[in-house]
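Quick one: sequence plus adenosine-5'-triphosphate SMILES, need structure tokens.
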Amino acid sequence: MSAVSLAGVTKVFNAGRPDEVTALTDIDLTIAQGEFVSLIGPSGCGKSTLLRLIADLIPATSGTVEVAGKPAAKARLDQEYGIAFQQAGLFEWRTVQRNVELPLELRGASRAERRARAAEMLALVGLADFARHYPAQLSGGMQQRVAIARALAVHPPLLLMDEPFGALDEMTRERLQAELLAICTKTGTSTVFVTHSIPEAVFLSDRVVVMSPRPGRIAATVPIDLPVRDDAARQSPAFFEAITAVRRALREPGEIPAATP
Ligand SMILES: Nc1ncnc2c1ncn2[C@@H]1O[C@H](COP(=O)(O)OP(=O)(O)OP(=O)(O)O)[C@@H](O)[C@H]1O
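Reply:
Sure thing.
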């Protein structure tokens, strides 16, 4: 069973009105369990729309969207995924711990279970000592780690992320990329990750899905085969070759680049 499966998906906003927009057309995409896939493409090509369709925050106009082998709406009710956006979106009046507990509350988990799970997640993202702090007392990078802990709190098999590190400085961003990879590897979580950064997509992904300008389509899929993914990997020939392949696919949509070695 795949983590995500989209077949023949089209999304039209404001259908039949003068401001009708075809945001996505003919999207076929299958993501395997444990796979890390990034979506990259020019502004307005439909990356966020695609993520929101997978999350069942908006319905597809046509085609099918399945998560964990279920229709997207059922997967949402079953909390099959966690979601994290560019803004951490924490509740300022709740402590860090109570922010992480929120999805567990929605699921009706007991207080003891919520406490234990929140402690586990905060340890995973390196914030065990900050459980009683409020979001305003944390840096942007720390707030984003809380958002990731919250997204993972119900142990979802799938993580959906929309430019989660977009607002952070480069150093923090690279550190969080490494932390995210370690967490996904440890937990076996599949991830769909929207980004504007080619190096970020290459560093994180098993596959980079390159989208064409509106109406968004999948222009190319670039497999990324880095032997290791640590700081040194960012200086490796394989890393630069993969960046070149993604850049070429973005410049020349329609031409499928050669797979990286
Ligand atoms: N709720 C909506 N109503 C009408 N049009 C929308 C809506 N949401 C998105 N669109 C349109 O759909 C297209 C795709 O938008 P989307 O936000 O998915 O692009 P994106 O690739 O994520 O862009 P960016 O990289 O700038 O964040 C755009 O033309 C946008 O204006």
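The CA atoms of residues 233 and 239 lie 7 Å apart. The chain has a mean pLDDT of 91.
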